[in-house]
Amino acid sequence: MIPIYKCLDCENEFETPKTIEESHGFTTPPYEMIATCPLCNSENYKETYKCDQCGVYIDSDYIQLLDGSRVCENCYNKVDF
Ligand SMILES: [Zn+2]
Ligand SMILES: [Zn+2]
What we know:
This protein has about 80 residues and is mostly beta strands. The protein has one domain. The protein contains one helix and eight strands; from the N terminus they run E-E-E-E-E-E-E-E-H. The chain has a four-stranded antiparallel β-sheet with strand order 2-1-5-6, with no helix packed on it. Strands 3-4 form a two-stranded antiparallel sheet. Strands 7-8 form a two-stranded antiparallel ribbon. The radius of gyration is 17 Å and the shape is elongated. The two termini are about 20 Å apart. The relative contact order is 0.23. One zinc ion binds near residues 10 and 42.
């Protein structure tokens, strides 16, 4: 299961955060590497998951089944595991 990241600033969804160098005003390396949203360079993003049943992104709490798959509340209520 691949975690998806969702930016809380621009609502962009991405699989790989962009890594940028934060120099903190210094002109020489080493710079701090920070992971950001590829679209707006915000660090304000969170990990989210795709429902294994219906494929929607689960924004709130997911339900983890015994076999390790994660489903949204909708599917959990709908499907009889
Ligand atoms: Zn963003
Ligand atoms: Zn679902």
